[in-house]
Hints:
The protein is mainly alpha-helical and 202 residues long. It has a single domain, classed as Ferritin, core subunit, four-helix bundle (Ferritin), CATH 1.20.1260.10. It contains 5 helices and no strands. The chain has helices at 10-86, 90-116, 127-137, 143-169, 173-199.
Amino acid sequence: MGILFKSYNHQQIKIINMKSKYTLKLITIGIISLIFFLVGATSCNQCHNKNMGEENTDVSSDSVFLAETAASNLIEIKITQLAQEKTSNDSIKDFAKMLERDHTNLYNDLQTLAKVKSIIIPTSVISENMKMYDEMKEKDEPEFDEGFCEMMVNKHKKSIAKFEKTAKESNDLDIRNFAISALPTLRNHLAMALRYQERYRN
C-alpha cells in the first residue's frame, strides 16, 4: 500500500505559518492575562486580610480598654466607700464621696456603652484588685489617709494615659467620645489627689 502525501504550494504554507503565529500570539496573551489575574487576586486577598486584621485589632483594643476601665472604676468605688468609713478627716471624706459619685456615674455610662458594643466587662471587683482593698482595710490613720491619696494619684495617672490613648487612636466614634468626655473629670480628680497627697504626706 502506498503512502499518500498532501502537497502544499508556497502560498498555502505561508497561510499556515500565519495561522500558527496568530494562535501562538493568542495563547501568549491568554497566559499573560491569567498571570495578571492571579497576581491581582492575591493582592486583593492580602489587602482584605490586612484590613480584617486591623479591624480585629481595633475591636480587641477597645474591648480591653472598656474591660480595664470597668475593673478600675469598680475598685475605686469600693475603696472610696472604705475611705468614707475609715477616715476622720473631713476633707478626705468629702473627696472620697465625690470620687465615689463620679466613678459610679462613669461606670454606669461604661455599662451602657459596653452593652451597645456587645463587649463584656466586669460587674464586680476582680480578685486581683481585692488585694488592694484588703491591704487598705488593714491600715489606720494617718497611714490610711496617706495611702489612699497615693493610690488615687497613681490610679488616675494610669487611667488618664489610657483614656488619652483611646481618645486619639480608637476608630470607634462612640468609644472615642466616651474617652474624651471623661478626661476633664479624671484630670480634676488627679489634681485634687495630688494636693491631698502633698498635704497629708508623712
